[in-house]
Fold this sequence. Notes:
Elements: H1 2-38, E1 40-41, H2 45-58, E2 62-66, E3 70-84, E4 92-109, E5 115-127, E6 139-142, H3 149-161, H4 169-181
Antiparallel strand pairs: 1-5, 2-3, 3-4, 3-6, 4-5
Amino acid sequence: MKFLIVILALLIGNFSIAQNRKELLKEIHTFENETYTSTKYKTNLLELKLILTNYFTNIDYVFQSYNGSSFVFSKRIKLTCRRDGNKKMYGSSYQECFGSLYVTIDLINNIDSTIQIEISTRTASINEPFSEPFSSQQLIVLGNYKFNETKLYKYLHHHFKEEELKIPKELITKIETYNIKQKDDTKKLIAGRDY
């Protein structure tokens, strides 16, 4: 009986440490996202267009358009599509199809001549490989191609602010307290690797 209690105590201790790590990482990422999305950049549209074009060219995106308040970039991607056929005769069929991922960067001009950025993505223009005609309700795109918005925000922040994002002292104190409790170096939260 004592053996079971000891094992249970160890499991609960490990679980609480893991939860603490997850909670800390979540708190760090929430702080980063809130800071990046609310940051205002003191720049002009031409400079911003050059920086964005440079960033997206490096990750194989193509500049599509600018309509005065937003830039649109696109990339051709592979998707897996499922077409639900007649359940009795055909069943479902799966094939690789191609589509375009569009990244829209909306510019919010502020009174103090700064620009704030909002990022949105959508998948469209799916070229289906099926030989029979289909309706859009029959074609289901599986999986999700995710654009890393945080990476773009970090790139812009580093370029315009020319410094790394500063984490508040209270959060650094929490991280240091957590790291002191850890015996193994791989479990510690390290700047540059974990946040």
